[in-house]
Predict the structure.
Amino acid sequence: MSADSELHADVLRRQYAANVDNRLQAAGLGALALAAAVYPLVLEWLAHLMGPRVVAAVLALACCAAAMAATTTASRLTRATTAALAAGAAITASVTPLLLVAAGVHATLAYLFLISLREQRSLIERVAKTIQPAAPDFIGPYCRGVTALWGTVFIINATVLAALALLAPIEVWRAVAGAGVWAWMGVLTVAEFLVRKTYFRNYWYRGPFERVWSRLFPAEATAMGRRSQAHIREVREKLGLDD
């Protein structure tokens, strides 16, 4: 590897090391999404096993502690709101406030996505840079669009889940909050991935899927594909990777 390649590789290593905050942010976002997925599945079982008051009291105490440990106003407000809902369930012995917690989690995710649009780099772009620090800056506009899309998706989820929590039988709420919401988001994730891969035609990893997709949608056929191809070639050359 040449001296220039060594220097560039060292820069990338420093970029990976500097991404600690972004990685922690991505991990926190993943944990929040996992909680939203698991919560509807275990809530009714826990309420039946321990009683709604006990479940609600434990959740309220945990959220109060989390709110006090929060480092930002937004996270403090989100956790305090969840604690208030749980406290309401503990006082009334009603499961409805606990059902509303799921809507609150989705509303929080919507807020995190949409508020990031005020920053230079959107949440999706920060995640992309966390995964691949060598990702080019020209992905920014697309990432902002995807960030806005997911913010809107989570607003829709929160609205639907809140309406079902207040108006529908718990079985309907559980089906939508558990499988329904995540099934449609899974379909959307796959669709967005295919759109992104077709738009950028970024074939960095060269795995089986990319080999097939690059035959169907060659990078040379579009201006954006050629731009992505040139960027990949430049980075690989600087890193001393074989073509």
